[in-house]
Amino acid sequence: MEATFVLYPNMTALDFVGPFEVLGSVPIVTTRFVAATLDPVTSDNGLTVVPTDTFSSLKSTDIVVVPGSGHWRELLRDSGGVVEWLREIHPTTKWTTSVCTGSTLLAEAGLVSKATTHWAAREDLEVRGVEVSTDRVVFDGKVVSGAGVSAGIDMALRLVEAEFGEMVAQAVQVGIEYDPQPPRAYDSIPPEIAQGLKAAFDSSQS
After folding, report:
1. Half-sphere exposure of 35 toward its Cβ, with a 13 Å CA cutoff?
2. Domain 2-181 has CATH 3.40.50.880
3. Residues belonging to the active site
4. β-strand partners of 139
5. The whole model's pTM is what?
6. Which residues pair with 66 in a beta bridge?
7. What are the residue ranges spanned by the domains of the chain?
């Protein structure tokens, strides 16, 4: 089985590195990295990744993982070919997935009806006609979305469970020693803190 990770400038590294570690831990899964060109792609915090394929060369794959970005509204205005490629590749996939604001790209491509995303981007899903969930992982047919950043690990583990069974998913989780105990969620923090965070994220999009 082949898992392909979408790369584009200013993506968030953990959005794809987390699922990469999870899916790459399954022996029968091979991994690829696809981008507009074969030039190295740099994340929003400076991690550089070299693609193995381009949007024009990769015509089918089993799993697609779309990371998000802290600059998601800029990306929605000009996705650099990501949205068009997602529309083309989606009919060939067994699973099309996203992490964080990557779900807004799936929504822009018209591929999802219910999804989760980073709390700062919920409105961007709503305006694209998507039913927004606050769950950490959401299955919408063959489309699977994970909420903000670290939720990509949870999404990938749920995907491994769906594809290979609970025992394999448990083995992978123990193998990467992932024991999630998040102390806070956006909807549980004091309103004044939530409003400040939301204002900061909104201002970063202008």
Report:
1. 19
2. yes
3. 100
4. 144
5. 0.90
6. 98
7. 2-181
